[in-house]
Amino acid sequence: MLSVFTAGLSIREQRWCGMSAKIGTVLSGVFTIVATSMYLIFEEKHLQSGNCTEIKLQDPGINIIRQLIICWSFKIVVFVSSITFVISFLLLYSVYAQTLRGMVIYIIWIIFYEAVNIIIQVLTSTNSSIEMVRMMRWFGLVSRVVMHCYWMFFVITYTYMMYKSKSQGNILTYNRRTSTSSGKFLQRKSKIINFSHHYKQ
Question: Residue 70: which residues within 8 A CB-CB, separation 6 or more?
Answer without folding.
Answer: 50, 52, 55, 123, 124, 127
